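Filed under: proteins

Residues; backbone shape codes:
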Amino acid sequence: MAAFDLDNPVFVTYAIASAIMVLKVMGQGWMTVYRMMKSDSGLASPEDLQSGPLNENPRPDQLAINDYVDRSRRMHRNDLENIPAFWAAGLVFTAVGPPVLLAQVLMYGFVAARLVHTIAYATEQRHEVRASFYTIGSIAVIVMAIYALIALIV
């Protein structure tokens, strides 16, 4: 399993990029909770209206969609739709032993694209801006998957 050894710079690249993406996914969930607490709204489920230490005065309007909260929730969902494909494709890509520079460009490129996509989403940029960074990240994952598939078939 030399491919998954810390002496392998491709694996180190994958590990760093993966760890950053774990922090991104988990951080976005916490951002949503922060926004719900800050706005005292945007709760997702009827049972969230039960009184408790963090919601001492529940109100039915807390279940109404609040764009400040929902934007973070959509960003989280978008991460969950895209980042797992990176983890899977990146792992197989690492296993087939690609050139280090190619791995760094694709993996760090994906991370950068996701982070800029997040900034664009959080600052309410138009769809074309977000879509541009989604496309960059998506192409990086597709290239990794095709590279790995070719390496495994040939």
